[in-house]
């Protein structure tokens, strides 16, 4: 039986009615009963355990095997609605188990539709960061381990081609928006016509402006008739957003809406007033006095993270330090999240890439050294601790200028937070040590300068001016506290690098040029004034050219008067732009450019008047001539390529049918033109005609493309059905007819899966084998019997190498 919402999706598949066996019948009976139970499920009664829900056997077993028994609030409410096919807007505090609240319905709703690999993509799960996508995928692997669906992880970091090959057959995809869109646009094999469910975890983040275009484009690719589920701790209620996703009469499941606090009750929250210039001291002292804790430290930018991480590492606090930010290589990021998850005591310095959804086990402290941009970010950051009934503590460092504004915002969001004071006796200053280190190690100093600049810029672009006020910050002291010899001067230069900054805050990324220019006044002027006063021996020291590898770009960064010229406006706005940009920005001017030509010209006139004898004039083509007045120029004559520079541009001609040459644009005479009406109407007519023409052509193209796709798919399906039918018969004697094994993409560097899972992965048939259809079935560890029969069958099947072979076989089977 189809789930109640018959208008959406399709019912259970009508299989061929010949050759049905008892086994298959029993399967269908089971599904019918399951659907019946779902329909009868009473939404009013509060359920306690997963076993109270009408779940399929594979899901129930997966949950038990992963030790999930009792339902959390959000799970108990959201799952029942979702099983009935309703659209869901799920809001519940951090750490309250939202992941299962959408994964269970995804598995169940596909299962009840008897989804198989041939049905293509059934569910798409979007997450704002790669780490979160991986984490969701891991949970899916765990609870979905007894299902026959194929599932994939699409987060980039691998070649598109490699992913493309596998995507065609995936039933469930967990992905980040950018990469997904790329596939939707480029991967022909990926069929979304059939999609049943769309899930967005951390939906408000995905729907905010940074992802807006991408998400709109993704949704454009998906069928309108589908189930949509949005989950977050801070949920969007914007009607516009919901319309964008064409949500139909969504069920708003907000379990903690009436709660006294927006954060878990097991979380203790504090703030402390730390002037900007003492932040690092306080942080250092905190780390030193909590060596037996697991702590996440949030900073506002990747540069800050790197500087604090590198400098604290030098200082050897006596606890493992790690760092996580958006510009790290994917493999590295993964290693770090895994390592931090497994550590008992460690400190992780992170940007907001780690703020959303990540479920590090047993985090004791969340320290926010830099004030979060808004209260939602605050809630998500502190949500990294006190997860699922555990306790946790959070401390927010606030500059005196930020206190009033931020507290007001937190109060509005129902965040209970108390002030604490740091014991002066426990506080340790590391300013001198940092200064020493920066002095000795130019690279560290360079990082420090970058960190300073990115911090100032991050404050500058903050939207909430009630909290963030650049003028009130003591930047000179702050620079000194980083160990820097004076505050780098900051110029907000025009231009923004075009690199996509998916994880950077939208505000940071969209700093407009005009704002940037005027911003110069705030930061730069103040610093300039200060620079005049403060000149230390460090300044003089750095005016000397550094003798190490960094000397080159240092000299580019430092003006003659020892102040910084910042090449980083483009970088700081986007918090972590590539360092390379700095190295590459200064280009050498090619020796024989136009300017040399100019020089040559002028020297030519002098030369002629001086009667210099060496000068020659070479006719290059009709119009241009080249003056040869030096050896170097003489050499030029030998290189055709270099000479191109001095030749004028050719004119492009087009040829008509008779072979006569015409200019690309030929003017018609004015009378003829006027005869056809005045310019404006002509233009309008032309535009209208062209628009109409393009539109029609567009439609035709789309129609043709769709037709082709459909045809291809039909063919493929017919082929595959034929094969499946053949196999089903074999299966009947052999054992459980299971489709594909639960096939995930490998996760680079991840070793968090259980051993059994890994083995399963290792024994997964390779791509080539799968193309041969020789072994499309599960060779999972549990059923060696099945495996044996498969083995036999493989041997008996003819080896298929090419598509032609395959087609031959298929047509044979179709009879
Ligand atoms: P959220 O997405 O709401 O922040 P998660 O889904 O990441 O929360 O879950 C937080 C933690 O709670 C995870 O470690 C998860 O394993 C655990 N958890 C979730 N649901 C249950 C449950 N029903 N019983 C026990 N633990 C659960
Ligand atoms: Mg979550």
TrEMBL record:
<keyword id="KW-0698">rRNA processing</keyword>
<dbReference type="InterPro" id="IPR025313">
    <property type="entry name" value="SPB4-like_CTE"/>
</dbReference>
<dbReference type="GO" id="GO:0005730">
    <property type="term" value="C:nucleolus"/>
</dbReference>
<dbReference type="GO" id="GO:0006364">
    <property type="term" value="P:rRNA processing"/>
</dbReference>
<feature type="compositionally biased region" description="Basic and acidic residues">
    <location>
        <begin position="610"/>
        <end position="621"/>
    </location>
</feature>
<keyword id="KW-0347">Helicase</keyword>
<keyword id="KW-0539">Nucleus</keyword>
<dbReference type="GO" id="GO:0003724">
    <property type="term" value="F:RNA helicase activity"/>
</dbReference>
<feature type="domain" description="Helicase C-terminal">
    <location>
        <begin position="279"/>
        <end position="438"/>
    </location>
</feature>
<comment type="function">
    <text>RNA helicase.</text>
</comment>
<feature type="region of interest" description="Disordered">
    <location>
        <begin position="509"/>
        <end position="534"/>
    </location>
</feature>
<feature type="domain" description="DEAD-box RNA helicase Q">
    <location>
        <begin position="48"/>
        <end position="76"/>
    </location>
</feature>
<dbReference type="InterPro" id="IPR014014">
    <property type="entry name" value="RNA_helicase_DEAD_Q_motif"/>
</dbReference>
<dbReference type="InterPro" id="IPR014001">
    <property type="entry name" value="Helicase_ATP-bd"/>
</dbReference>
<dbReference type="Pfam" id="PF00271">
    <property type="entry name" value="Helicase_C"/>
</dbReference>
<keyword id="KW-0547">Nucleotide-binding</keyword>
<feature type="compositionally biased region" description="Basic residues">
    <location>
        <begin position="709"/>
        <end position="719"/>
    </location>
</feature>
<keyword id="KW-0690">Ribosome biogenesis</keyword>
<feature type="short sequence motif" description="Q motif">
    <location>
        <begin position="48"/>
        <end position="76"/>
    </location>
</feature>
<feature type="region of interest" description="Disordered">
    <location>
        <begin position="597"/>
        <end position="621"/>
    </location>
</feature>
<keyword id="KW-0378">Hydrolase</keyword>
<feature type="region of interest" description="Disordered">
    <location>
        <begin position="1"/>
        <end position="29"/>
    </location>
</feature>
<dbReference type="InterPro" id="IPR000629">
    <property type="entry name" value="RNA-helicase_DEAD-box_CS"/>
</dbReference>
<dbReference type="InterPro" id="IPR001650">
    <property type="entry name" value="Helicase_C-like"/>
</dbReference>
<dbReference type="InterPro" id="IPR027417">
    <property type="entry name" value="P-loop_NTPase"/>
</dbReference>
<dbReference type="GO" id="GO:0016887">
    <property type="term" value="F:ATP hydrolysis activity"/>
</dbReference>
<feature type="domain" description="Helicase ATP-binding">
    <location>
        <begin position="79"/>
        <end position="253"/>
    </location>
</feature>
<dbReference type="GO" id="GO:0003723">
    <property type="term" value="F:RNA binding"/>
</dbReference>
<keyword id="KW-0694">RNA-binding</keyword>
<protein>
    <recommendedName>
        <fullName>ATP-dependent RNA helicase</fullName>
        <ecNumber>3.6.4.13</ecNumber>
    </recommendedName>
</protein>
<feature type="region of interest" description="Disordered">
    <location>
        <begin position="666"/>
        <end position="803"/>
    </location>
</feature>
<comment type="similarity">
    <text>Belongs to the DEAD box helicase family.</text>
</comment>
<dbReference type="GO" id="GO:0005524">
    <property type="term" value="F:ATP binding"/>
</dbReference>
<feature type="compositionally biased region" description="Basic and acidic residues">
    <location>
        <begin position="672"/>
        <end position="708"/>
    </location>
</feature>
<dbReference type="Pfam" id="PF13959">
    <property type="entry name" value="CTE_SPB4"/>
</dbReference>
<dbReference type="Pfam" id="PF00270">
    <property type="entry name" value="DEAD"/>
</dbReference>
<feature type="compositionally biased region" description="Basic and acidic residues">
    <location>
        <begin position="522"/>
        <end position="534"/>
    </location>
</feature>
<keyword id="KW-0067">ATP-binding</keyword>
<dbReference type="InterPro" id="IPR011545">
    <property type="entry name" value="DEAD/DEAH_box_helicase_dom"/>
</dbReference>
């Amino acid at each position: 039986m189809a789930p109640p919402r018959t208008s959406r999706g399709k019912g259970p598949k009508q299989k061929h009615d010949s050759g049905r066996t008892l086994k298959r019948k029993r399967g269908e009976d089971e599904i019918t009963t399951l659907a019946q139970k779902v329909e009868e499920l009473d939404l009013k009664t509060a359920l306690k355990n997963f076993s109270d829900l009408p779940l399929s056997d594979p899901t129930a077993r997966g949950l038990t095997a992963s030790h999930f028994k009792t339902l959390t609030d959000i799970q108990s409410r959201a799952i029942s609605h979702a099983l009935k096919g309703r659209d869901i807007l799920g809001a519940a505090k951090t750490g309250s188990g939202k992941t299962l609240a959408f994964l269970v319905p995804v598995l169940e709703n596909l299962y009840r539709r008897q989804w198989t690999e041939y049905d293509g993509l059934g569910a798409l799960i979007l997450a704002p960061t790669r780490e979160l996508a991986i984490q969701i995928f891991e949970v899916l692997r765990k609870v979905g381990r007894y299902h026959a669906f194929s599932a994939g992880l699409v987060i980039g970091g691998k070649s598109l081609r490699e992913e493309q090959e596998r995507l065609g057959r995936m039933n469930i995809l967990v992905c980040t928006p950018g990469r997904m869109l790329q596939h939707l646009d480029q991967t022909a094999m990926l069929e979304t016509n059939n999609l049943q469910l769309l899930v967005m975890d951390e939906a408000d983040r995905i729907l905010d402006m940074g992802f807006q275009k991408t998400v709109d484009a993704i949704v454009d690719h998906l069928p309108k008739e589908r189930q949509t589920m949005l989950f977050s701790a801070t949920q969007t209620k914007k009607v516009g957003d919901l319309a964008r996703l064409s949500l139909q009469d969504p069920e708003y499941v907000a379990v903690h809406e009436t709660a006294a606090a927006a954060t878990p009750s097991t979380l203790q929250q504090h703030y402390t007033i730390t002037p900007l210039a003492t932040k690092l001291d306080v942080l250092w002292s905190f780390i030193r006095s909590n060596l037996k804790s697991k702590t996440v430290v949030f900073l506002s930018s990747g540069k800050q993270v790197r500087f604090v991480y590198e400098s604290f590492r030098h200082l050897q606090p006596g606890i493992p330090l790690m760092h996580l930010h958006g510009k790290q290589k994917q493999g590295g990021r993964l290693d770090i999240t895994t390592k931090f998850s497994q550590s008992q005591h460690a400190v992780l310095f992170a940007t907001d890439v780690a703020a959303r959804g990540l479920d590090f086990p047993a985090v004791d402290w969340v320290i926010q050294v830099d004030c979060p941009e808004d209260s939602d970010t605050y809630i998500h950051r502190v949500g990294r601790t006190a997860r699922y009934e555990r306790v946790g503590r959070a401390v927010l460092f606030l500059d005196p200028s930020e206190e009033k504004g931020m507290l007001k915002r937190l109060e509005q969001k129902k965040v209970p937070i108390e002030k604490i004071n740091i014991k002066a006796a426990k506080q340790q200053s590391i300013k001198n040590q940092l200064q020493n280190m920066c002095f000795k190690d130019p690279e560290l100093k360079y990082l420090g300068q970058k960190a300073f600049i990115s911090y100032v810029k991050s404050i500058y672009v903050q939207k909430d001016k009630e909290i963030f006020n650049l003028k009130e910050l003591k930047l000179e002291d702050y620079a000194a506290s980083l160990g820097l010899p004076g505050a780098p001067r900051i110029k907000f230069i025009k231009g923004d690098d075009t690199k996509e900054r998916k994880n950077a805050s939208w505000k940071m990324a969209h700093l407009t040029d005009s704002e940037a220019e005027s911003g110069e006044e705030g930061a730069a002027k103040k610093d300039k004034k200060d620079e005049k006063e403060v000149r230390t021996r460090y300044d003089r020291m750095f005016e000397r050219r550094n003798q190490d590898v960094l000397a080159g770009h240092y000299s580019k960064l430092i003006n003659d008067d020892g102040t910084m010229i910042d090449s980083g406006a483009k970088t700081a706005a986007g918090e972590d732009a590539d360092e390379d940009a700095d190295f590459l920005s200064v280009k050498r001017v090619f020796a024989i450019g136009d300017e040399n030509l100019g020089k040559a010209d002028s020297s030519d006139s002098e030369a002629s008047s001086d009667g210099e004898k060496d000068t020659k004039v070479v006719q290059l083509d009709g119009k241009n001539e080249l003056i040869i007045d030096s050896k170097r120029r003489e050499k030029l004559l030998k290189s055709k390529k270099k000479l191109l520079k001095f030749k004028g541009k050719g004119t492009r001609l087009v040829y008509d049918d008779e072979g006569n040459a015409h200019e690309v644009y030929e003017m018609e005479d004015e009378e003829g033109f006027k005869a056809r009406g005045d310019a404006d109407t002509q233009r309008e007519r032309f535009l209208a005609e062209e628009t109409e023409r393009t539109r029609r052509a567009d439609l035709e193209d789309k129609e043709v493309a769709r037709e082709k796709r459909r045809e291809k798919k039909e063919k493929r399906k017919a082929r595959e059905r034929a094969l499946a039918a053949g196999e089903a018969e074999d299966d009947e004697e052999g054992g459980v007819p299971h489709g594909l094994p639960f096939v995930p993409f490998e996760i680079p560097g991840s070793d968090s899966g259980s051993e059994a899972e890994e083995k399963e992965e290792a024994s997964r048939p390779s791509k080539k084998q799968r193309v041969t259809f020789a072994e499309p079935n599960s060779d999972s560890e549990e059923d060696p019997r099945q495996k044996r029969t498969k083995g036999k069958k493989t041997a008996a099947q003819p080896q298929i190498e090419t598509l032609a072979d395959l087609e031959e076989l298929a047509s044979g089977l179709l009879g």
